[in-house]
Amino acid sequence: MSTIPPNVQENARRKLSKFLKRSRPGLGEPITSLRDENGRIPILELTWIRLSDETWRISGIEEHQLDKRLVDSTIVECRVFFTQGEDCHLPGIVTALQSLVTPEQAKARRFLKQHVAQVVTDSRIGASGPIFHSDRLEMDNGLGPGILLGSDLIAMDYIYGIALHEDDERLARIENVSIESALQAVVYHFNDLLHVIANLRAQIEHDLQMGYFELEI
Question: Rounded to whole angstroms, how far apart are CA atoms 24 and 45?
């Protein structure tokens, strides 16, 4: 028998209901449309032509890029999932789910919590680290250490420095980063974010179907 207070459970139900509405199929479609059969987004796609039985030549190189407007609209659409304090903030959704199931089931969902934490921590995405690096150092504009600027930091600087806000420090840090690289960083890290959102939704739908809890009383 759960010892979670009724008002806490009611708040948890409210959060899960909002999450299910905001995470409907089609979320982030401009980005998910770039995925390959394994759900990944290749950095480059090479086209080969066969010259002979043993000789092949690259005939084309395609970078997976999205229009800035499409990327910005996806950021706005998904901001509630990675912004701390929002009802749909992913770590909070896992906590809400755990409060509605039995203690044993809640313990089993600690792996889901770890899965989310690999992508979303506090108000940032890319918690597990960069997917690629820029050709410049963080300290090039007088900010950060002398290490290569990673895609995780580029993505967050673009999100909070350009797409959502005009944070001067973040703008300065990516001053020498091309808009193409910044958009690419957002696309790759948002692909991970969208995978986690889909996995979390699938777990909630499974638990509802199994009758572990109800959203309406």
Answer: 29
For residues 23 and 170, give the distance between their C-alpha atoms in angstroms, rounded to a whole number: 28
Could you tell me the pTM of the whole model?
A: 0.84
Run of H or E residues at 134: strand 133-137
Specify whether the CB–CB gap between 28 and 194 falls below 8 A. yes
Site of tokens 């001067």 = 168
> CA-to-CA distance for 187 and 75, rounded, in angstroms?
10
**Unique residue bearing structure tokens 């895609």:** 151
Q: What is the CA radius of gyration of the chain?
A: 20
- Give the tens place of pLDDT for each residue, 18-62: 999 999 999 999 999 989 899 988 764 434 455 555 555 544 445
Which two structure tokens, joined as six digits, stand for 156? 């967050």
| Residue 56, both tokens | 């092949």
Pair type for strands 148-150 and 133-137: antiparallel
C-alpha–C-alpha distance, residues 143 and 198, integer Å: 35
Judge contact between 41 and 132, C-beta under 8 A.
no
| Dihedrals phi, psi of 133, to nearest 5 degrees | -120, 150
